[in-house]
Design a protein that fits this description.
single chain; alpha/beta; 7-stranded mixed beta sheet; 28% helix; globular
Length: 340
Amino acid sequence: MKAIIKKDSSPGLEIQEIDKPSPGPLDVIVKIKKSSICGTDIHIYDWDDWSSKTIQPPMQVGHEWTGVVDSVGSEVKKYKQGDRVSGEGHVVCGECRNCKAGKRHLCIDQHGIGVHLPGAFAEYLKIPATNLFSLPDSIEDNIATIFDPLGNAVHATLSYDLVGEDVLITGAGPIGMMSALIAQHIGARHVVITDVNEYRLNLCKELGIKHAYHASTNLRKLMPSLNMHEGFDVALEMSGSPSALNDIISNVKNGAKIALLGILPEDTKISWNEVIFKDLFIKGIYGREIFETWYKMVSMLESGLSVNGIITHEFHYTEFEKAVQIMKSGQSGKIILNWE
């Protein structure tokens, strides 16, 4: 089969012919129909400090996907050939306290598809049956392909009650845009999103996110026009930018709630005095709640949430190099790779 591989410890990826996997007793082999490119894949492509410490080449990359069941292991009863599926990219131990308590996303010994284990940029993917999620007919392939990042957005956005609240989102990448659409869908009063990328700010407006502003905007001066007088009630940091986090702390009200999904530098400095004296609540967000997040995102999609416009490009997998360069340019939303 064909797969996109990180061949060695240097920048780039390449297509190789490798053996098709066979299922173990509890595994499923999925024929991949579509996959999508994540920022993690770009880190691996560039071979940055994180990836050089994390990835052991050769590695079959990619972790956002949808497909159909090709074959199943001898002990798998729930799935059969032809079933439409997507799946959770974190393979957990099942034995630690969090796993046994039903909090699998907090597993202390988890491994990532396309990072530690062979990934989904391939014609076939081997995955434990317990990581699969059956797709209803109402969910089209392109949307199922981005369930992984959509799940990140759902997990972060639903961390707090947003009904009637004023929400600030820093970072208008695909997950930030998804979060803004979710916040609007579930009843936030005002949703403001900021970024430095004009392409993505314009895409926000095309998606119906009314309040999309450059990160240099003075939000305090903006607030009166939104009938806001004390600051934002909830903030979601999606950019990984220290200055964005400091903007949040400066512009939220006393007692506000903050969720952090963007990966911040280790040496990020913030005003801890403001955190203390404003009595702020800060929560880290990692991955998706397995599988509660998945049920919630399907429910929202079936009740009218639309994220289709976030997908801006689609390429055959043989054109992955072109897709990577467009994504690196910042002139895209989500990019799909077609394996059919």
